[in-house]
Design brief:
Strand 1 and strand 2 form a beta hairpin. The protein is mainly α.
Length: about 1450
């Protein structure tokens, strides 16, 4: 019984796979042999049985296998011959078939006929034999029997369709169909196909699946097309058979049209299919792609395939089932795992396709690249880019380029990336190395948005992947940090910082890698050192794990080693590291809910650890004023940035307050006595009473004891025992003191408010007549005194700017006034102290990094005059860097010649007393103003402060925020915005080199994010608009008073220039804010709305929730209204740039674009007041930028160019030497080269952007383009002919460069248009070519001119220009041949001429005349033939080039 049950199971396996292994068959044979004795041989007299026995098969009854005594081929051959040679053939066939029918009526007999036969050979012979087929299959191999047997099988099969599986485990329908597989020959394949398809239509679903998948193994190639059509019809009727049908269709040879139809049908079902079916469907779609339709199919596939909607519902369903029935969590987990398995299987299918089919990978990337809308991008796009990046090395550069473009355009944002990792983390985990490689490539970019995206890749790879991948992420980040590139180091440290906060437990496992960065501290900036020690301290001290103790030990070792160093560079590392580590240990944990109870308060052991660490830093730095000041600043930053435990704050407050008073504060009654070089006076006190109970800052004696006494070595033994305090520490120590008091008393500074109004022990700082008689040492002493006083006042303003009491506000404004006054005094002293180096004010840097930019006042002034076009000092100038590449060219034409430079030196030396120094060069030596200081801007130009005492008004005092103080604040704010919100110049620092001084003096600012800075500035928009409107009104009144005269009374006054500078700074700040690229990030969109609402509400109070477009339009109109009062050209340019930024954010900028162009033209046509130290008040780069804005935004650029070149320039030519054009006052002989360059560049750009016409375009389009080219060539002709009048070197250089580019554009864009316009518009084409010929001839003359003068700057453009003109000749000739006018082209000679048309005669050219005449080409056409006339002109150009080429070569 056992053998009976096991035998069918084995047979069933054989029936499902016809190529079963021999190991499976041998047990079957042995089992059969065991039961053979219980079964008998079939004995009857039928023809069927006899013929089989004669041929070699013995039929068995019961469950035994039929026995085959001969080889299968021999059996078939014997039976075939027996039947054919039988006397009753073909009747014997019927008898044989009827015998078969009778025999298989018995179910056991039918089953035996379907199962394989037993081969009766010895074991040795059977080892090499093939598998034995069943009796039915052997009979099907005989052609004369095959049709009848197939008919019998299909008649017999319906009996078993709806029966259950037999007791022996055999599925009879499958067994019957298996007999039809892999037949050597099908006699009637069409009939067989029909029968199978009919069978499929009536069979149960589970059998339909088997029957369909068997089709490729049954049918021949000739039936593939018919079966494909029927299966496609079945696909629409029965969706349950989608998978088997697609599986079969991918194995059939189908026509492309049918395949496309089926693919479209399947594509439409993608959104509704089950997740389990997706892999097979996607496989079919991808395998059916051809090179011609790849992009179309992939584009449609990525639109219809939304895995997010397929996966998330299953996950949601699983979670819901968990909630409903907690006992079925395993089933829900299985369902979730099944979904993930399907997705992994799907991506395996896609990976295989993109790896081995290049057209699919390229089409997928192209489909993503062609998607423009932000909302159309899906998580699948990012996942596919990552997968293709990992599988196809040839497309890596392409993918990186596409990814960069998508990031810049805002299509790939953080939310999309996060969703991609969240949903497909299992798939992406397999390509982790490629993702890290891509992130590394992105971090090498110069674009901040791309760098941010690369950092997010690292972040999400760490958060979503396993431990091994996390280790790789940390290793990659450490590599970036040790690379020495500033941007990479900053980004990698920021990522580590974020990972420490988000996933501290995982980071602790990799702490050993982070700890290795301690070996590379030498090349890191102070800010980077702070971040690194914060990361390490957090890992080491946030928990009491034993594993973190080794980090603590290493950090202590490094810090103590660096603190004990005598070099400030290493001491700086120790100070920053120690203070940062102390901050982590002493952090106030009372508000943290995540910590266990009892961890809130700082333990006494931890408190001792913190205080001892800080005392160690103090003792190691007290011998160096610079190190002490750095320690005070770092400690102050720690208190300001983090919430420290009360115990530590209390200890710090008491220590700091006592030490500060002992060091710097003295009684005002006790005037210091000593051998001071200047009389000591208490100055800048704000209290009116002369009482002697006040205090004063002991500045001059301290500075004297440091500078004079130490230099001369006159320290007595008593003095040497006393602790010498450096005045360098005054400002840093006070900052530490006030922040400590502020944090202890929640912003109340009553304890130290006496320091706001107390005087300082100084001397008279106004030089007067003593300025020239003082020694260098005395000058330096006074300068240091002023610097220290300024920095003291700056810190005082930082401290008390947020106090709300009116009397405090008055004192703060007064201190601000003192700062401005002292700066004016400082400029006078610095002007006569050229080599003076001020005391440091910012200490988190190396001393060697900070030196004043100028060595002498005079040379600095001359350098400013020469390089910057004679701009005034920074307060009155502007720091505009035009994005136009033109600004980098031809500077030599605008620079003063050496003789002019020497003349300038003489003039400046003669006027030395008028020379001033720009304090901008000394920016690094001033203490940094906090952002809170700019709350003073809320005061307005005139503010009344009423001092109330006991509800009675005792006094009323008027305090004004005067223009100089306003300018001081705006200058500083503009610098901060430029440093934080404006991207730095795209330059890479050399490996392990210093990063320059861009960030010096902005240490406190850099501890805030750019979005925080932008938020603070948006809060200041309203008061800045008030100031802007006040200044606008000031200039409006001044203009009305002077009746519109530019140089009227008051224009040259000091107040006018200060107000003008304030105007410029306000516009510069607004421009810097709105140009910030962070507004494109979704989290900052609300900030942009807030900023625009402020501007629009100045115009009219609008509704609270207005659309962005409406806000942009109102803001544009508000800012546009200021154009009437713009006092200087620099302000005008900033206003235009600000309007451009507003315009760029709009989606419908057409109307305002015209207004912008109109404004730019008004500014070009306005007479501007001239500067004091320059012929024109307009710097060249700014004029170029404004003119470019005008031509780029005007509707008709060709008309605008024609107006300037055809109206403005002739006016200039006919005017006196120093005069300007009456229409365009900004156009002078000095600025002509600027106008010429911009017009040539914009002309070339406009024609280059014009699409070349095609013959299929309408006639109207042809005429419009031909008219446009006529205007362009006319403008080009006007501009080119101007070189006859203005023949300076810069003008000729521009003419050569852009002339060549224009001819190239003519070749590519215009000549195809002329090809099919020649016959219909013959006269217009001829006129166009005739005009252009004159221009190219002049270009040829210019080539000859440059060779005569041997000017390398000009001659480098000659070869390319000649080549382009030669191509033009050939192209014109080709056009003639195309239009059947070949006879209009003939050869001639052409001579070299100069700009004036005179022939150039040289020995070389005479000797080469004979050779030239052979090679030169020219077309001289008689005027009687109009067709030839136009072509003659072009050919003569090319001929000129060739002749000039040869003469040039000879002359060289």
């Amino acid at each position: 019984m056992v053998s009976k049950r096991r035998l069918p199971t084995s047979e069933d396996k054989e029936s499902l796979t016809e190529d079963a292994s021999k190991a499976r068959k041998q047990p079957l044979s042995k089992k059969t042999k065991k039961s053979h004795g219980h079964n008998e041989v079939e004995e009857n007299d039928s023809v069927f049985v006899k013929l089989l026995k004669t041929s070699g098969i013995t039929l068995k009854t019961g469950e035994s296998q039929n026995q085959l005594a001969v080889d299968q081929i021999i059996f078939q051959k014997k039976l075939f011959q027996t039947l054919r040679k039988h006397p009753s053939y073909p009747k014997v066939l019927e008898e044989f078939i009827s015998g078969l029918e009778s025999y298989i009526e018995d179910q056991d007999g039918f089953r035996n006929c379907l199962l394989s036969c037993e081969h009766l050979q010895d074991e040795e012979a059977s080892m090499g034999t093939s598998y034995c087929k069943s009796l039915i299959k052997l009979l099907l191999g005989i052609d004369i029997l095959q049709p009848a047997i197939i008919k019998i099988l299909f008649e017999k099969l319906p009996e078993f369709l709806f029966k259950n599986v037999n007791s022996d485990g055999l599925n009879m329908p499958r067994l019957i169909i298996n007999q039809l597989k892999w037949l050597d020959r099908v006699v009637d394949s069409k009939d067989l196909t029909t029968k199978i398809m009919q069978l499929i239509s009536i069979a149960p679903v589970y059998l339909q699946h088997d029957f369909v998948t068997s089709l490729p193994e049954i049918l021949g190639d000739s039936q593939h097309a018919d079966v494909g059509k029927e299966l496609s019809d079945l696909l629409t009727e029965n969706t349950l058979l989608t998978l088997p049908i697609l599986d079969v269709l991918s194995s059939l040879r189908l026509e492309p049209k049918l395949l496309t139809k089926i693919r479209q049908l399947v594509m439409g079902k993608l959104s509704s299919v089950m997740l389990d079916d997706l892999p097979m469907i996607i496989k079919f779609i991808l395998h059916s792609i051809t090179a011609t339709d790849a992009l179309e199919v992939i584009s449609e596939l990525r639109e219809n395939l939304d895995l997010q909607h397929c996966i998330l519902p299953s996950l949601l369903q699983a979670s819901q089932s968990k909630l409903k029935n907690k006992g079925q969590t395993s089933s829900s987990r299985n369902q979730e795992n099944s979904s993930q398995d399907c997705v992994i299987l799907l991506f395996d299918v896609i990976k295989s396709a993109v790896r081995y089919e290049k057209i699919i990978s390229e089409a997928w990337i192209k489909a993503i690249e062609n998607t423009t809308s932000v909302s159309e991008h899906k998580i699948l796009d990012l996942a596919m880019l990552f997968i293709i990046y990992s599988t196809n090395t040839q497309t890596k550069k392409y993918i990186e380029r596409v990814l960069r473009n998508k990031i810049r355009s805002g299509c790939f944002q953080e939310q999309l990336l996060q969703s991609t990792f969240h949903i497909h983390y299992l798939v992406l985990k397999d390509v982790c190395p490629s993702i890290l490689s891509l992130a590394q490539s992105l971090l090498h970019s110069l674009d901040q948005s791309i760098i941010l995206f690369g950092s997010l890749l690292y972040k999400y790879a760490f958060n979503f992947f396993d431990t091994y991948c996390q280790q790789e992420v940390i290793g990659a980040l450490v590599t970036h940090i040790c690379s020495g590139n500033e941007a990479e180091v900053d980004t990698a440290l920021d990522v580590l910082l974020e990972l420490v906060v988000l996933n501290p437990s995982a980071m602790r496992l990799n702490a050993v890698f982070v700890k290795g960065i301690l070996d590379y501290l030498d090349n890191m900036s102070p800010q980077q050192i702070r971040k690194l020690f914060y990361i390490l301290s957090t890992l080491a001290f946030s928990t009491q794990h034993e594993a973190s103790s080794h980090i603590q030990d290493d950090m202590h070792l490094v810090i103590r080693k660096q603190l004990s160093s005598t070099m400030f560079k290493y001491k700086l590392i120790g100070i920053i590291g120690a203070v940062t580590m102390a901050g982590i240990i002493a952090a106030d944990r009372s508000g943290s809910s995540s910590l266990t109870p009892g961890r809130g308060d700082l333990s006494s052991e931890q408190c001792t650890q913190v205080t001892s660490l800080l005392q160690l830093v103090h003792s190691c730095s007290e011998q160096s004023p610079q190190a002490s000041a750095l320690y005070y600043d770092e400690f102050a930053n720690l208190i300001q940035g983090r919430k420290l435990a009360p115990k530590v704050l209390e200890w710090a407050g008491q220590t700091i307050s006592d030490d500060f008073q002992d060091a710097f504060v003295v009684d005002i009654c006790v005037v210091p006595e000593g051998d001071y070089p200047f009389p000591v006076k208490a100055l800048y006190g704000l209290e009116d009473d002369d009482s002697c109970d006040g205090i004063a800052i002991n500045l001059l004696p301290l500075l004297f004891s440091q500078d004079f006494v130490k230099d001369e070595g006159r320290l007595t033994s008593q003095e040497s025992d006393q602790k010498l305090v450096s005045p360098l520490c005054l400002a840093p120590y006070f900052r530490l003191l006030r922040l400590c008091v502020d944090r202890q008393h929640n912003g109340n500074l009553e304890e130290i408010d006496g320091l706001l109004d107390c005087p300082i022990f100084l001397t008279d700082l106004e030089p007067g007549e003593r300025l020239e008689s003082m020694s260098v040492k005395e000058h330096s002493f006074i300068c240091s005194l002023i610097f220290l006083t300024l920095n003291w006042f700056r810190e005082v303003v930082n401290a008390f700017c947020r106090q709300t009491l009116p009397e405090m506000k008055v004192k703060v404004l007064t201190r601000l006034k003192h700062i401005v006054e002292l700066q004016q005094l400082l400029e006078k002293h610095l002007a006569v102290t050229p080599d003076y180096v001020p005391p440091l004010a910012n200490f988190d840097l190396e001393t060697s990094e900070v030196t004043p930019h100028t060595s002498t006042a005079v040379s600095a002034k001359i350098r400013i005059q020469g390089n910057l076009g004679g701009r005034k000092r920074k307060a009155d100038g502007s720091k505009i860097s035009s994005p136009d590449p033109l600004s980098k060219e031809d500077n030599s034409g605008c620079d003063p010649a050496p003789s002019d430079r020497s003349q300038l030196e003489k003039e400046f030396r003669g006027k030395e007393e008028k020379t001033s120094v720009s304090l901008q060069n000394y920016h690094a030596f001033f203490r940094e103003l906090d952002l809170e200081v700019f709350s003073i801007l809320h005061c307005g130009l005139v503010a009344k402060f009423i001092l109330d005492t006991e509800m009675h008004t005792e006094a009323t005092e008027v305090v004004q925020l005067q223009p100089p103080e306003l300018l001081f604040l705006l200058d500083d704010l503009a610098q901060k915005l430029e440093n934080m919100l404006t991207p730095s110049v795209t330059r890479r620092c050399p490996f392990l080199k210093s990063k320059g001084n861009r960030n010096i003096g902005f240490s406190h600012l850099h501890q805030r994010s750019a979005s925080e800075i932008a938020h603070s500035v948006v809060q200041l928009l309203s008061p800045m608009c008030n100031h802007l409107e006040n200044i606008h009104n000031y200039f409006q009144c001044l203009t009305a008073k002077n009746h519109g005269v530019v140089d009227g009374p008051g224009i040259k006054g000091q107040e006018y220039h200060i107000m003008s500078s304030c105007y410029q700074r306000l516009l510069q700040i607004l421009h810097g804010l709105f140009a910030w690229n962070g507004f494109f990030q979704p989290e900052n969109m609300n900030l942009l709305y807030s900023a625009l609402e402020v501007l629009s509400n100045r115009l009219k109070l609008g509704e609270p929730d207005q659309a962005l477009e409406e806000l942009l339009s109102q803001s544009f109109h508000y800012l546009q209204n200021f154009h009437l009062s713009v006092p200087s050209f620099q302000c005008a340019l900033y206003l235009l740039r600000l309007l451009m930024i507003i315009l760029e954010k709009s989606t419908a900028p057409t109307q305002n674009k015209g207004k912008l162009a109109s404004l730019a033209r008004q500014f070009l046509c306005r007479v501007w007041p001239s500067g004091e130290k320059e012929k024109s008040g307009i710097p060249n780069d700014q004029l170029q930028a404004l003119l470019s804005i005008y031509l780029e935004h005007t509707d008709g650029v060709l008309k605008a160019i024609e107006e300037i070149a055809g109206v403005g320039v002739p006016e200039l030519i006919n005017s006196p030497k120093e005069a300007s054009s009456s229409t365009f006052p900004t156009l002078t002989r000095h600025t002509f080269v600027i106008f010429f360059r911009v017009m040539m560049a914009e002309l070339e750009k406009s024609v280059k952007g014009l699409q070349a016409g095609t013959a299929t375009d309408s006639e109207q389009i042809h005429e419009e383009k031909l008219l446009y080219w006529n205007m362009a060539v006319r403008d080009f002709s006007i501009l080119i002919n101007l070189i006859k009048v203005f023949d300076s070197r810069p003008v000729l250089h521009v003419c050569l460069k852009y002339g060549c580019l224009f001819v190239e554009a003519f070749l590519k864009q215009c000549m195809p248009l002329l090809d099919f316009s020649f016959r219909k518009h013959r006269e217009d084409v001829l006129s166009l070519l005739e005009t252009f010929q004159l221009n190219t001839r002049l270009l040829h003359h210019l080539c000859g001119h440059s060779k005569i003068h041997q000017d390398t700057k000009l001659t480098k453009h000659v070869p390319l220009l000649k080549k382009t003109l030669e191509l033009l000749v050939c192209r014109v000739k080709a056009m003639l041949i195309l239009n059947n006018c070949r006879e209009a082209f003939w050869l001639g000679n052409l001579k070299n001429r100069d700009l004036q048309g005179e022939e150039i005669i040289s020995q070389n050219s005479q000797e080469s005349t004979a050779d030239e005449s052979e090679d030169d080409t020219s077309s001289q056409v008689s005027k009687s033939k109009g067709t030839e006339d136009g072509e003659e002109d072009e050919a003569s150009d090319g001929e000129k080039e060739q002749e000039s080429d040869e003469s040039d070569d000879d002359s060289d």
